[in-house]
Automatic annotation (TrEMBL):
Domain of life the protein comes from: Bacteria
Protein name (record): Large ribosomal subunit protein uL4
UniProt xrefs under InterPro entries: Ribosomal_uL4 (IPR002136), Ribosomal_uL4-like (IPR013005), Ribosomal_uL4_dom_sf (IPR023574)
HAMAP family for the chain: Ribosomal_uL4_B
Record region (Disordered): 43-77
Function: Forms part of the polypeptide exit tunnel. One of the primary rRNA binding proteins, this protein initially binds near the 5'-end of the 23S rRNA. It is important during the early stages of 50S assembly. It makes multiple contacts with different domains of the 23S rRNA in the assembled 50S subunit and ribosome.
Family annotation (PANTHER family): 50S RIBOSOMAL PROTEIN L4, LARGE RIBOSOMAL SUBUNIT PROTEIN UL4M
Coiled-coil region list: none
Oligomer status and interactors: Part of the 50S ribosomal subunit.
GO cellular component: ribosome
Length: 209
């Protein structure tokens, strides 16, 4: 599949990029996408939630009143959950939310997500670019040139480029990743995917193993 290569001003360079049909033109597997996104979101959870239960509360263990004759329910400890300051009943405990998926399923999910974006004409290929110094203004000019201002966009680089990454970091709607950091969630979360020429070979190599 041939796609026109654009420059940072959104104009065609006269070159064509070849997008592999095995990556960008498959029948999307929605269940694989669901599992991969579920794993990604689960791994964002720290799982450190915790509240003290009855056995963990500091306090006296003395029986606070006699067993019978008070006219009220029996009570053995001030740490009981029914009293203010007592332990919590069935409180949250630390938990590992991580999920395991095999690599082939994750590759299928990412190819499915890219294919969906290609069907929506939401993928563009841009020639490699760099900035002399990290400047948010320079990255905003790139977004304007590509018509992506005020849109959620994902830029995929071939290799780590600190100047481009740092220039985009202050912009809430744009994210810059390398081809090895590409995930199903990030692909679907963006309205537009911008693939730099240098990233295409790495993407296809990673997803066609």
């Amino acid at each position: 599949m041939k796609v026109a290569v654009l420059d940072i001003n959104g104009k065609e360079t006269g070159r064509k990029a070849d997008l592999s049909d095995a990556v960008f033109k498959i029948e999307p597997n929605t269940h694989a996408i669901y599992l991969d996104v579920k794993q990604y979101r689960a791994h964002q959870r720290q799982g450190t939630h915790k509240s003290k239960e009855r056995a963990e509360i500091s306090g006296s263990t003395r029986k606070i009143k006699k067993q019978k004759g008070t006219g009220t329910a029996r009570a053995g400890s001030i740490k009981s959950p029914i009293f203010r300051g007592g332990g919590r009943i069935f409180g949250p405990r630390p938990k590992d939310y991580s999920l395991k998926l095999n690599k082939n399923l994750k590759r299928l999910a990412r190819k499915s997500a890219l294919s969906i974006k290609q069907q929506e004409n939401a993928i563009m290929v841009v020639e490699d670019f760099n900035f002399e110094t990290p400047k948010t203004k320079d990255f905003i000019n790139v977004l304007k040139g590509l018509g992506l201002e005020n849109k959620k966009s994902l830029f995929v680089l071939g290799d780590t480029n600190n100047n481009v990454y740092l220039s985009s970091r202050n912009l809430e709607g744009s994210e810059v990743v390398t081809n090895s950091e590409l995930s199903t969630y990030k692909i679907l979360n963006a309205n537009n995917i911008v693939l730099l020429e240098g990233s295409l070979e790495g993407i296809e190599a990673n997803l066609n193993k």
